[in-house]
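Hi P.,

Sorry for the delay on this. The queue was packed all week, but I finally got your sequence through. Input first:
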Amino acid sequence: SWHLVNTCGGGGGTLFSGGPYSTAGDTVDEFFCLDSSQAYLFKILDSEGNGICFGQYGDGSYTIEYGGSTIRSGGSFEAEEATDFGSCAVNAPAPVSTFPQLQALQR
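Then the structure:
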């Protein structure tokens, strides 16, 4: 299983989580929109204590991509592996919508 947490002051709690996964050969893709003015902790857990690279379910792996770059990839760990990424912006401006805005035209 895994979870993603906002680590900035007051960010609080788990933002996203998933698993446990137990079907051999399954591929799971997760995509999230994250605020670039925040910092995050991704933690992946394995109840068997042998990572996701070994065991009865075959060779597994994971990749974290953020801001167009691969932050971490792997699968060989014991009970858990944690990765920090992003940074808490001090006095960051309010997020700006990247969605198109439509305006009605009057005739």
